[in-house]
Specification:
single chain, 169 residues, mainly alpha, Ferritin, 5 helices, 76% helix, binds magnesium ion
């Protein structure tokens, strides 16, 4: 494997674990605010991010490439409103999309078709992540403005259940 592709794939392990950490922080924010449904939604999001990290980890191991685990950054954002959390989530997913695209670009340049095929799942996944984050903002805009709407939205988000990623390595 090309050094650049290797480096970026290894970095992505850390970025996905950071994503999990960030969403745990979001979950913690909503738990403290008494919104268990939102807390559940982000808790499941965190579990998915951990799965993503493990997919990059396993892919490198399967390719007999060295895995180096780095320190995970501290989530350090302060939020003044619930909506700010949701918006930070969307911004973060757009950032992750840019990271996946960067790896894909490096793999493409090196004609590393196996890595490109591995990344295809993540390209699609990022589309879904951005859609989910956008939908949540839209719902919050529509229904989050009054206590009754927020209560119902919180109930809806409480129903989200974890499912393992469809990609198996
Ligand atoms: Mg992810």
């Amino acid at each position: 494997m090309n050094t650049k592709v290797h480096e970026l794939l290894n970095r992505q392990i850390n970025k996905e674990f950071y994503s999990a950490y960030l969403y745990l922080d979001f979950s913690n924010y909503f738990k403290a605010a008494g919104l268990d449904g939102f807390a559940n939604w982000y808790m499941i999001q965190a579990q998915e991010e951990r799965d993503h990290a493990m997919l990059f980890y396993t892919y490198l191991q399967n390719e007999s490439m060295k895995v180096t685990l780095e320190a995970i950054d501290k989530p350090d954002k302060e939020f003044a409103a619930h909506m700010e959390v949701l918006e930070a989530g969307l911004e973060h997913e757009k950032y992750v999309t840019s990271l996946i695209n960067e790896i894909y670009g490096a793999a493409y340049e090196d004609r590393d078709f196996r890595t490109m095929q591995f990344l295809d799942w993540f390209v699609k996944e990022q589309g879904e992540e951005e859609t989910n984050a956008n939908d949540l903002i839209t719902k919050m805009e529509l229904f989050g403005g009054d206590a009754r709407g927020l209560y119902l939205l919180n109930q809806e988000l409480a129903a989200r259940v974890y499912s393992a990623p469809s990609l198996v390595l």
